[in-house]
Structures are given as structure tokens and as C-alpha cells.
Amino acid sequence: MRIGTATATTAIAAALVLAVAGCTQPPAPEPTPTPAFSSEDEAFAAAEATYRAYVDALNQVDLSDPATFEAVYDLTTGDLNASDRKSFTAWHADGYVKSGEATVVSIAPQSAQLSPGSSVVVTACLDISAVDIRDAGGLSVVGADRPAVQALEVALVEAEEAPSQLRIISLNPAEGQETC
After folding, report:
1. In angstroms, rounded to a whole number, what is the distance separating the alpha carbons of residues 150 and 148?
2. Contact 132, 53 (CB under 8 A)
3. Which pTM value belongs to this model?
């Protein structure tokens, strides 16, 4: 039996359509983003560790050596990072000298959002009584009325480059909180 040219062409086209359709797979579903932390306790622990690392990094800053600033910058993001960069650069340029170390007195959890793009807020009490900053002439630039211990609201967000890590996005006076 002989097949006509039109029938053969139609059969070949149909076979190609079926062959291509068999190779085509539906698109893979988008992965469901998962939270960086499985619980609020885990998020608060990460926030505390990050804040303590930040204070440790601040304690290691030598205003005459800009390389020591990098550890602080690595733990911050957004406006706080920009502010720290501006302050340290100016203090370095002006020949300021920092002495003494700050000590974390306490850290208390406030709130946590665990969905992808986690954010955490804690209140920290920071003893800065031993910290002094002096200008190039040796005069302290620390106000005489500065409290020895400060209550701070510390806001942290997921690090873009490592979602299981947090970066400090803001440090503000803790208003309405118990004093330290």
C-alpha cells in the first residue's frame, strides 16, 4: 500500500509534534522559601551572638588602623553600616584615639519575625563607662552627661549573603524600657 505525499507529510508532522511534546516537561515548581530560623529562641540566640560579636568588634577598633573597622562593618547593614563607616572614617582622619572597652550587661528578647527575610529586635544594656574617645589634642569628646550604662533597642535582619546569619540594621535608645 502506497501512502500519498500529503498523508506522509501529515504523519511525519504528527510524529514530530508527539516526539517534541514527549520531551517537553512542565516547569519545575519554585522552591518554597524557608525561614532562616526554626524558632524564636533560635532567632534570639543568633541576635544575641551577633550583637555580642559587634561589641567585641567595636572593642577591637583602633582608630589609627582602618583595617580594624572591617569586623564592625561585617556585622552591620543599611543606615547603621553607613553611619559607622562615616564616623570611623572621620575619627581616623581627625586623629581620635579610643580607649577602654564596652561590656554587654544583658540582652532581652523583644520580637522576632521568622518568615523568609527574618528580623529580630532585642534590648541590650551596654556598660560604656570604661570607653573614652579623645581628639588629637588629648581632650575627651565624650559628653560629661553620658550615662555609664545605656539601654539600646537593637534591630537585626537576615544577611543577604547568608540567610542563617543576622546583621544589625539599627541601634537606638530603648524607649519605654526598663533602665539598665
Report:
1. 7
2. no
3. 0.80
